[in-house]
Amino acid sequence: MTVNHKKLAVIHIVKRELGLSDEEYRDILQRETGVRSAKDLDEKGFRRLMRYFAGSRHYRINKYGLTFRQKLFINYMVDDLGWDVQHFKNFLNKYYKKTEVNRLTKREASKVIESLKNILKHTPSNHAQT
Predict the structure, then answer these.
(1) Cα(3)–Cα(17) distance, rounded to whole angstroms?
(2) What pTM does this model have?
């Protein structure tokens, strides 16, 4: 049984976020899972591919150790808060002296995540702020 559309979407988001060329992506798929198209992945192949991404050089977004998972989680929470790009940039600049997520260290990203969790915890359920 092949993976569902949501998992295919995750794979393609990861591919785009990591900046993989189509050839690099297909070579990784072939090497790690034995298929050249994500449409042919089963659940076991999907998990194997995600483990590969999590443990590879591709998993680090910058030289400071920021991980892909941290970046995705930060972006998810910012979306959940309903913040626009400028609002989030202002937040990062005010509290972390950074202008974008990709410039955070792994430690700073962890602090940003904790800050956003606290903001979410204390924000009314509509989470829409600008």
Answers:
(1) 20
(2) 0.56
